[in-house]
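Hi Y.,

Following your request, here is the sequence exactly as I used it, all 232 residues.
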Amino acid sequence: MENTSEIPRYFLLKDSLKILDVRRTFKFFSNTIEHRSLIFPSNGTFRISDMSRNDSGNYSLQTFDSKGTASNERTLRLLIHAPVSSVLLVSECLSQGEMRVSCSSEGGDSPQYSWTLDGRTLTDAELLSGNNESNIITLKQHVSGRLVCSVRNNVSNAFKEEKISTCDNFLLICGLRAVAVILLLTGISIYFAWKKKRTEKDEASALSQTTEYPENSVLMVERRNSTSCTNT
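Below is the corresponding structure, written out as tokens. Let me know if you'd prefer a different format.
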């Protein structure tokens, strides 16, 4: 509205909720979000501050003539988007030397992702899975350089850079760990085999001594005494 001073009545709805109701004839005014809004009747401006996602919706302005008949209605679709921020990159080496990298950001509505390596777009020869619009990608072996993930939406953009190197050292560490596990298992097997053999040898030695020296054996005999009674 250019000027509200000549309009008998008008109100503003957000979806189905009436947030503003002005009646010039009866000098009635109602504003459900008065604590964070202002209206300027001279030029028809309605201002809302401290907006959030909850303020998104359809705003409808309805005007009425002096008889209370609706004279005009207009609707505005309002979308509130939170900006993207604090982009985080997390990388991990996989078993075959590949590298998985994930990109995320705090907040942000409808984020869109893009990747570059040393200032250029990633190619299919460098990607094992994912694409330049995915938030998680897997790089092939021997891919290294300055990796950048950019996140954007309709109201803001942000990026995170990380220097990545190949996962050859990771494969070496995995190989050494596997060798260590094999040696540990082999050592445990040898120990238990030796312990079993030692036990069998001790048992055989004890049996041999019992047979050779029978005088060392102990014979337990139970003796029962009989008691007689004589009557005189």
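Confidence is low (pLDDT under 50) at residues 217-232.

Thanks again,
Q.
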